[in-house]
Amino acid sequence: MRILIVEDEPDLLTSLAQALREEGYAVDTANNGNDGLFNAEGTDYDAIVLDVMLPGMDGWEILRRLRKTKKTPVLMLTARDQTRDRVKGLDSGADDYVVKPFDLEEVFARLRAIIRRSANQTTNLIEIGEVTINTAARNVLLKGKPVELTAREYSLVEFLAVHRGEVVTRTQLYEHLFDENESSMSNLLDVHVSNVRKKLGADFIATRRGHGYCIA
Ligand code: CA
Predict the structure, then answer these.
(1) Among residues 85, 118, 151, which one ends one of the domains?
(2) Distance from residue 94's CA to the centre of ligand 1 (Å)
């Protein structure tokens, strides 16, 4: 899953980006409104963390413009004294908000929830044959036993599982699993797919030649 963070406070931006990367997300960042909107419109993020007060263009304006073309789930970061703004945010198409200063665990949980809702998933558990994926704990069981996956292998499994039954193109996988600084490392995708097959079974991920990958 790939997240965009738009936040102008450098320390907060850095620590949030690092924390989300440690959670296994690919993360892009923008520190002003114009770059934020440019990224948000140009890439299919799985979710956007959007600060309200930003130089250039504020979070509400970004949201208003983004909603003309994209339904990307948006988590707003609001200040404690912006209570009325929160209502405004949810009215103008934000999916949820957290109040600064926030707890990181709360941000993680709310992000998981808005991503889940956008995929019409009602629980944190996805069961596919003998494989169970827990998107809250970010772990995978095979026949009830934990399987050791790297963060990137997990992200691959999760993305394909959320879109199970659909053919996911390589382009989509690059866009959702890698951030803007690493997307050129293209050949790695095959390595991750091959490793997941070794761990979860050769048939777990099907190759649709010329199209992409699919979990049936
Ligand atoms: Ca700000």
Answers:
(1) 118
(2) 17
Backbone region of residue 149 per phi and psi (left: phi > 0; alpha: psi in -120 to 50; beta: other values): beta
Same domain, 99 and 166: no
CB proximity list for 81: less than 8 A, separation 6 or greater: none
Q: Give the structural domain span for 88.
A: 2-118
Query: 97 CA distance to ligand 1 centroid (A)?
Result: 14
Q: What is the pLDDT of residues 32-59, one digit of tens each?
A: 999 999 999 999 999 999 999 999 999 9
Determine the distance separating the centroid of ligand 1 and the alpha carbon of 169, expressed in angstroms: 36
Task: Identify the bridge partners of residue 77 per DSSP, sorted by sequence position.
Answer: 51, 98
Q: What is the pLDDT of residue 83?
A: 63
Q: How many A from CA of 70 to the centre of ligand 1?
A: 23
Q: Which residues on neighbouring strands pair with residue 183, listed in sequence order?
A: none
Gap from CA of 37 to ligand 1 centroid (Å): 15
CA of 12 to the centre of ligand 1 (A): 10
Residue with tokens 């990958």: 213
Query: Domain boundary residue among 67, 92, 118?
Result: 118
- Tell how far the Cα of 55 is from the centroid of ligand 1, in angstroms: 8
Full-prediction pTM beyond 0.85? Answer: yes
